[in-house]
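From the shared-data thread, chain only:
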Amino acid sequence: LSYSPLLAPLLVFVLVRSLRRVRRDERDLFLAAFSWPVLLFLLTAMVRLKDAEQHWTMMGVMPAAILLGRYLDATWTRAKVVRGMAVAGVAVSAAALGLGILHAHTTALLRLFPKGYDPRADMINELVGWDQVRASVGQVANGTRGSVVLASNHYSMCGRLFFEMGDEPTVYCPTARRSAYDFFGRHDPPAKATVIAVTTDIHPELPEGLRDRTCSVADTVDVERGGRQVARYLVQSCPPVPDHAEERASRD
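Structure, as tokens:
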């Protein structure tokens, strides 16, 4: 529903319809076989796991989108309600996409927002100002002696650090919630390395995996758009864990 509240009911409808037609049409059987098992498995996982994400079900919904296309093709001329919902869903999604692109690349909409506008609730603000963040992280990392790695407290932030810095220094993601970094062997930063952690005013807490370190703010980056401060990034330096601090000091 979060992706398209007008089209989602149609997707559910055609999924149920496919089950009723699996014995009569191999096309329904084929698409239902690649949708229902995946969808049910992911829905069960989302109910049982505390770190589930709403987009997990998308792979199970994709065959339903194909089913919906087939159904619309067969009923387009006689199903006025379905046709109206489909057109409205596409129109609303297209309009939202257009406004999102406009807001991401210009400050035209930002200047129209009221004074009570909360920039932390606007996900577009998480995409801007990274040239400043990249420069700050690079400066702090270059000024740190010994082995240095990067980290953050949210999967999207870890991914952005990876992209912006080109994985140099190496990026880890020691969050409490599972992420792709767990499967890459990038969850736990080396104990002997200094971790440069990047946090924001949206997610100010340090990553769960850095709880055993004493971190200090090395730099603060304020990002502005249209004359408003829309984001603040904290670049924090987290020395090696105490058990390895003396060993590293003697080596340096």
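The mean pLDDT is 87.
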